[in-house]
Amino acid sequence: MNRLADPAATPAASLSGRAWVGEAPLFAPVDLVLERGRWTCLLGPSGVGKSTILRLIAGLDTGVRFDGKVHRDQPVALMAQDPGLIPWLDVTGNVTLGARLRGTLPISFMAKYPGGRPSGPGKGTDGRGAAPPADSAARADALIRAVGLSDRADHRPDRLSGGQRQRVALARTLFEDRPLVLLDEPFSALDARTRAQMQELSAGLLAGRSVLLVTHDPAEAARLGDRILLLREQGLSECPAPPPRRQGHARPYDALEVLAMQADLMRRMMA
Ligand SMILES: Nc1ncnc2c1ncn2[C@@H]1O[C@H](COP(=O)(O)OP(=O)(O)OP(=O)(O)O)[C@@H](O)[C@H]1O
User: Do 132 and 58 share a structural domain?
Assistant: First the structure.
């Protein structure tokens, strides 16, 4: 097959270049290519520039000086480290925030349905005579259930724990339903059990998407990465290819080959 004609062969996004904070180099020249439809994990120590790379790919302001090129031709969803929840919106309002800002959900959706759940398809109005889109409401409901927060759908962020807030941010990112998804330490505030569940959930819901996952955690990279990259001050290096992963699933956390990969990644991070 002609690779140029095959959309799967073209990268989902790429970044090449280097960055400085003031006069101090942040990262040495890197050449990062995100393969379409796969999970790329970016591991690395704190402060080496991983979040900055994510923000550059997302096209957001970083405050650093970047000399290089970013290519991206797909709509992107970014889950930043800080959940960035809106304090006066409840869980459903936060999950559906993007749609409400884009005007694809009525702005009064939350005021009318504080729990985010219209009483049935086509019922109710948004105050302007339009029916609220029940499919969006149902999708938001399903995601909130999937992240284990159904019983808190009408809670505001100040009534949630750090891990619960992070799960709201995850549901909001998944609700965006974008082909390219950038995740910055998305599970870092979760207990080990919930973390494993959310890894599996994300692997399922983001199957076929192009994902860049920034993580400090070699165990996470070993479960989720189709490719694993290590960013250090000296630059970016590629770790040995992980074993194939069942489409739509994280690798089992207790499989010997996953534990061995975790140990190998840890050794590389310590080197
Ligand atoms: N706008 C900015 N102004 C000043 N310093 C910045 C700015 N943005 C990033 N930095 C610095 O650049 C470095 C890299 O930040 P970045 O958040 O990208 O690292 P990281 O690898 O994601 O770290 P962590 O794993 O701790 O989140 C940090 O030392 C940070 O203080």
Answer: no
